[in-house]
Amino acid sequence: MSTETAIDDGRSAFRENRWTDSLRSYTDANQRGGLPAADLERLATAEILTGNTTTGLDTLARAHEEYLEVGDVAGAARCAGWLGIQFMNLGEAGQAGGWFARGQRLLDELTEPNVVEGFLLVPAALGKLYGGEPAAALQLFSQASEFGRRFQDKDLSALGLLGTGQATLMLGRADEAISLFDEAMVAVTTGELSPIPSGIIYCAVIGNCHLAFDLKRALEWTAALDRWCAARPDMVPFSGQCQSHRAELFRLHGAWHEALEAAAVARKRAIQGDPQALFGGYYQQGEVQRLAGDLDAAEASYRQAARSGYEPQPGLALLRLARGDPRQAQTMIRRTAGEADQATRRHLLPAMVEIELAAADAEAAARAAAELESFAREYPKPMVRAAASQADGAVRLAEDHPAAACVSLRQAWHLWAGLGVPYEAARCRVLIGIACRSLGDEASALMDFESAHAEFLELGAAPAAAWAASLMQAGPDDGGRRQGPLTPREVEVLRLVASGEGNRAIAAHLFLSEKTVARHISNIFLKLGLSSRAAATKYAFEHGVTG
After folding, report:
1. Which of 117, 131, 145, 326 has its CA 20 to 30 A from that of 473?
2. Is the pLDDT of residue 159 over 80?
3. In sequence order, which residues have a C-beta less than 8 Å from that of residue 173 and are 6 or more positions away?
């Protein structure tokens, strides 16, 4: 095969998104006789997209030099800009800054305006965005988008539009931001953009939809991203981020096993060449572990997530609460919310209400709930309304207004159920049960506790199941002796565990197999939120199961 044929094959495969084939052909042509600058740039992209990031960056630097060699200053500046963005994504600020500075210096040599000038506004805008200056970022992104329109560069126009949406969301204008994201996504889904800008926009839009409580759009765009990645099976960047978004949706919808699997794939892809997936892969794993009651594992996952440079919140604060330290959780969530932009702060408000109530600061909880309610009036998406109604109901319950609490909590329960978010729906059922008990309606209270308990068990949410079980056991008319969620056989097994019998002795006493006894004990631990035989023994004595 001649060099020219290999180059033609590389270009053809590149156009068809066959990155591995493009890489193979271009590498062959490069070894035979070298590549022109534009083809070196394509080779670098194919290398990066197949997870060969280090090699791809070296090739992109060679393309930069080749552009300079042939006098194409704009092409050299463009490569410098992309090198800066790639190094920025890798967390190598020094390298990124150096390439951005070189790109700007090259642009200063040009006598006429060039589209690359607008492209180099993007990293400057990102610096403002993540530096807490969304208004300044909005101005820069708008300028970048205008450069794209002026020079008919669809990649730049869409990236500028994305950034404009992100800055607008941070300024608190969620509806306007969502419209901008939708417009950017039109360019992606119609195939107008090149692969790297497409992946950037897909992943950023989905993340911002979650931040804006727009679960329906997050689900829609995640499904689209999944299809986009599936059509490019050899692509590594963005595929890991896709899996972390899938993990979040699985977790919200109660498919926790699937969430853990997707999070594991995200972490694997982060190592292979999608570093932006590191945070989501570990954070979503930590969330499932926390809700399941595996607090040590959750702590380790959050620590790994923090290595990405992003704070694992509100999960880490809620973990402190689960460990029985509401004051530390309160300090943590207050600091994080105080430092956050408006969109991120709103995302933290539901956790803030829960933590402030646990820390017995009803006034602070009421302020956070009112802030969430104000957002819900401004932006009445179902998920925002559900979170706001749940927060309002919890605060009213703490303030001893059970009738008013019931109204808000039932609204929240119906909204969460409609969204298919079972954990939060079950939490609402427990709070409704507490309100009903306060109103003297014990029969309804038990019905709510039992329904929530069954849902928590199905999810594998041991701490929440134990919470519901404790309320089932503490009815006002049973002297505190209710045996709650345990079956008669499980009560027998628990009684023998409390008497100090081992599994073999229990099996012989009850004419069961040891395997069946072990399964009963596992079910008892899960239903009651226990982790040891000693804890089970203590529970049995405290609840009159030993007689």
Report:
1. 326
2. yes
3. none
